[in-house]
Amino acid sequence: MHKRFWFLAGVAAAATALVATAGAMAFRGDAASRAAITLRAAPFNWAAVPKTAAERKVKKILVFGMEQDITGFNLAQADQTAYWAALTGETPVVRGAYIIDNQGNYHLDQASAVKVTKTDFEIDIRPDANWMWGTKKVPVTAQDYAFTYQQFINTKNNVASTTGYSNIKNYTIKNSKTIIFHWKPGQPFADYRDLFGYIYPSFALKGLNFNTWWANCVCGFDGKPVSDGPFYLAKYTRGQGVTLKPNPFWYGSKPLLSEIDFKLITDTNSEIQAMRGGEVDAINPSPQTALAALINQKGIVYSSSAASSRSTGTSSSARRATR
After folding, report:
1. Quick one: DSSP state of residue 87?
2. Element (H, E) at 168
3. What would the pLDDT profile of 90-111 be if each residue is shown by its tens digit?
4. For residue 244, what are the domain limits?
5. Is residue 38 part of a domain?
6. 126 vs 92, 140, 305, CA distance in Å?
7. Dihedral sign, Cα of residue 151, residue 153, residue 158, residue 159
């Protein structure tokens, strides 16, 4: 179960390709061969990012200071689900039926309509919801929702939580854009809006191992990027950072940014200095008194608000600074 928030979407509104290892070239083989594939994104290249805020503004590039490293982008997998993986991979790259705004209100996202009864949970998918797979546009279909459900109930998969999905008995695909999930007798799930917040592309992941498929990229079995959100994951290097670029097939408003770079800066004091010196354009660090240095600095907007962690479900006080 995943709750998705509009944090990064607000930042993007304000303001290449993936490669596979040699083993991935065997993707044309059988399912066993695919399961053994190691897929990796193109390496994050900090040297190619403009170093001054003025240069980045002209090129519509935003650099975000990232406080913690990422060890995978499969948010439903227990070993990969984490806050910064969600900020860089879930909301901007992979979408679902609902999204939650900054006030905690739910809005239909990839779903155009939802109907829930004591026996059924019916989802209509937006007609214009499509996947980007490399350069191809592929419709988001009911089969993707069915495939996603199957991952949650597969006992071989190390899922973070089966809550809600375990209340579903089976499903019926009504048409390519409509699926009906049937509750187990007497077990309708009241928090249904938190189900299917993270949909998998069935056509691009068949035969891959759920526990490892997005450990180093958000891509299909051929190593090409996959996205149904406003951005796709273009580059990633563990211990360094992430690059996102706009998805041309996104059904929502066109992103105003041409690129978002997340640079890993694990020390909060260094992160604050990077913000003051113009090395980064935004940060979302852990709350601490040292952040007071940014409150009155010209050209920086500082905000503090209650926030919920999508990965853990806990609440905290969030401090954010943007240029």
Report:
1. I
2. strand 168-175
3. 789 999 999 998 888 999 999 9
4. 7-322
5. yes
6. 18, 8, 32
7. positive
**Is 2 inside any structural domain?**
no
**Residue 171 placed within a domain:** yes
Lowest mean pLDDT among 35-49, 108-122, 183-197, 224-238: 35-49
Tally Cβ neighbours within 10 Å of residue 15: 19
Q: Are residues 278 and 52 in contact, defined by beta-carbon separation less than 8 angstroms?
A: yes
Q: Reduce the DSSP state of residue 188 to 3 states and report it.
A: coil
Strands 282-283 vs 61-66: parallel, antiparallel or unpaired: parallel
Q: What is the CATH number of the domain that holds 223?
A: 3.40.190.10
In a domain, 1, yes or no: no
- Separation CA 62–CA 49 (nearest Å): 10
252 DSSP assignment? S
Q: Which region holds residue 208: left if phi is over 0, alpha if psi is between -120 and 50, else beta? A: beta
CB 73 within 8 A of CB 64: no
pTM confidence score: 0.83
Contact 271, 262 (CB under 8 A): no
Instruction: Specify whether the CB–CB gap between 93 and 217 falls below 8 A.
Output: no
Q: Considering its fold, how many domains does the chain have in total?
A: 1
The closest of 185, 40, 168, 192 to 115, measured between CA atoms, is 192
